[in-house]
Amino acid sequence: xxxxxxxxxxxxxxxxxxxxxxxxxxxxxxxxxxxxxxxxxxxxxxxxxxxxxxxxxxxxxxxxxxxxxxxxxxxxxxxxxxxxxxxxxxxxxxxxxxxxxxxxxxxxxxxxxxxxxxxxxxxxxxxxxxxxxxxxxxxxxxxxxxxxxxxxxxxxxxxxxx
Length: 162
Known about the structure:
This protein has helices spanning 22-31, 49-62, 87-98, 102-108, 115-120, 141-151; strands at 3-6, 37-43, 65-72, 75-81, 122-123. It is α+β, with helices and mostly antiparallel strands. The protein has a five-stranded mixed β-sheet, with helices on both faces.
């Protein structure tokens, strides 16, 4: 595939954490073209920096090129690839998404209508220091997200990429 989009539910929901695991990212990578892109949603509410960093580290373990964008007020979108993500590749992704009639409507719900809108929403991804990856045999995100949900924790505003 050229583009695979994953919009999982909240990671504290049983089983959803598997969609943030190294094994899932390996499976996605095996289905993408060499320069294909993977788009993954992650919420900023009911989460912690530790959860966010774990997702970034795990995503980068399969996809060395990751860029982050603001989706909606409380959600981010990661665009990941094995090939460098240039503005031209993001424009190609936009063309691919536009060819699917349902996706432009979904993206319009978050006021995202083209590559220029996407570039304006780019965020600086914090460097996720060394730490564990999310794996199926050592899951952590489910517990950490459940605790954050119970405590009402929310990440602050991420810095914009300049």
